[in-house]
Specification:
Layout lengths: L3 E9 L6 E9 L7 H13 L7 E6 L1 H13 L1 H9 L2 E2 L2 E2 L3 E8 L2 E5 L15 H15 L3 E3 L4 E4 L5 E2 L1 E3 L8 H14 L10 E4 L5 H11 L4 E4 L16 E8 L3 H8 L8 E6 L8 E5 L17 E6 L2 E3 L6 E3 L10 H8 L24 H6 L1 H14 L6 E4 L3 H18 L4 E4 L14 E8 L3 H13 L6 E8 L4 H12 L8 E7 L10 H12 L11 H17 L35 H17 L15 E3 L2 H5 L3 H10 L11 H16 L9 H10 L6 H15 L5 H10 L1
Amino acid sequence: MKKSYSFVASGTCRSSGTGVDARCIFFDDRSSITDLEFFDELQTALKLSETLPDCVVVLSSPDLCRRLCEYWSTSTDQRDNFMARGAREGVHYVKSYYFFAWDAHGLRLEPSGHSQPSSSSFDLPVDDFCEQGLRQLVRDNPVVQVAPAGHVFKHPSGTINKVFIQARELPVSEPELCFVGRSLCRAFAPGLLRDVQTVFVDTMSIYPFVREALDIAGATARIRSFHSYGALSELSPPAEPYVVVVSASTTGGMARKLCGNQGFDDKRVLTLIDTSAVDRKGMVLIPLDQVDEIYAAHLSDGTETEIELVGEHFSSKAKPPRSVTLGQPHTPKDLIRILQEFGIDGTRAINCVPPGQNASKLVCIDAGRVASSEKFHGWLMAEIPWSVSIAIDHIVFTNDVGSEAIAALAADIIEQAKGARPTIIGYNELDGASLSAAQGVLVVTAVAGDGGLLREISRDLREFVSPALPRHFLAGVGLPQTGEAWERLRQFLERNTTHRRYGFSSWLVLPVGPDGSDSAWRDLVELAARADIAVPAADVVDSVIADQSLTALSTGVGVAYDGFLPKSDGTPLGLSDGFLFFGDAFKDRLAEVTPAATYLAVSSVLQAARDLKIASNQLRPTGYESVVLAPENFLRFNDNLLQACMLRAAHPSELDYSASPHLSTLMKEFLVKIFARHAHPYGAASLEFAAALATGRLKLKKADAQEVVAGAIRNLQSQPSALLGLLLMVTV
């Protein structure tokens, strides 16, 4: 059971003006907590941080806060072990640990009873931190729903727009509920809730929030629901002290009517969640435009289908998944240029471990090839004079050969312009002494994924140099998982506590889709492990043939971890001319294209389809509409290697045809032909399709899947094969 709610908050120290990143951890005081549980919660929260924060802030009720401070003072070994996680090579990145007691009067700093690891102390804007914690709940939980493409919500008030807010989903755990209750209590003037006798709410779904706030304030008020707009016009301010809590609004209409037409005091009216706090009556606890600007960007043009909201629910007819056919609009911006530069001999094998790293990558470009590219040299010679500060006199490179070579090239360019050569430092050698004389820092990397290492370097620079010191981050090739991830990286690296922004440059960027541990390759490895102990039904296939087929399956998966399953005759999958997204990148050299380069292209196309801004052609589901790859894609791009890449790069939900009888039938008919012609070019990717069925990544309606598999097994049951083994695993 969770005993805390943690989030990251950023602000400015009120005494020094320096920027502060904090890991805030709120503890629920309604459940007992031991010292071991306390430090476990702290460690778990700290591990969630992408980079180490400047400080850790513990929030709790006064009684619990005193107990936690006691744990901090007396549990020496556990405290020291935890503090060691905030240090590296003798440098304390987590400089301070703060304990705040939170009651009806606000937040009060409590002495922790132990010296801080650093002499630096912060005057924290802890109230602002708590507001950021509320905004994080909106991001983490299903609070805001956006209408699917071609649809709008019709609210009970008559308002028509694209956003539907469910305030009841704000907390999903006891600690989160307690956090929301204390935040609600804090939003009203000190002492106001204590004397309240009646609380009006528009829905009883927010009763737990209000009751929590009243309990904290020591009030015993009665909570009365006026059921949204049903009885709104009948309300009038009572003689006794009161407050009004509105669950959610998109225009501020309810609060405006209460305060403007019905005489309620706007200091006693609060809306939990609204799209904005601007031009609103009463108070707004969480304005969505401070959570994400996208909530204000959803516009309707009057042609959409209405989804009518009834209270906190909506009525609409269920619809089959929308299918997307890949085409020219899904071409990634930099794909052709990357294929021309690195498509032949510049892309490392699938699931390789890049030099200097510990984890494997599905797709990876050779950093050395980036550094030696003449086109990259031309871009670098133009980019540095145009974009990099003249103050740069130190260059930091990520520890790989390609990045070191780029650092040397950048140093040559700066030396030619300034007459003085910058000092070059590897990230492993970065410390305060190496930057003691720095006037400006350039950070370079040849290849970046989502930018974890660049974030670490940025975090270290905050420790070693002043925020006012100019710095610039330069990446040769970016291979983020999504376009959004790259934009978040840009914002993280550029923003700082000064009124200027740090620099950020990149030559080529290609979002390539998921690169995590739940890839299709891992699914196949797990399938092979299950095949070792699987026992197919005796009436399906002869047991000897079945055992030999399952053994062939395991062997085939083992040798194909850095590529794809072969054709049924054991030869590798291949390509032919004419793939739309290759353009002329491989003119007369198609035979030299590796499976890894092909997968890079297909995966990036799928990610471009997910990131596409045109909703009707976007490969991204909403809360009310699922989306799948149209079966036509496997006919349009019918080279066996392309089919295999699509099966591996697609999300499982994008291959789930079980909710559409029509699409499931189309896929069934296609698979029947694939398995029947497995020995011919048309069905050369039959093992990949069978593997997708066996791992559950490809789904049909149950009857369709059974028909496909049963028919294929009947045709293959006379002799053992890896294809038969995969199909048998569908039945196990």
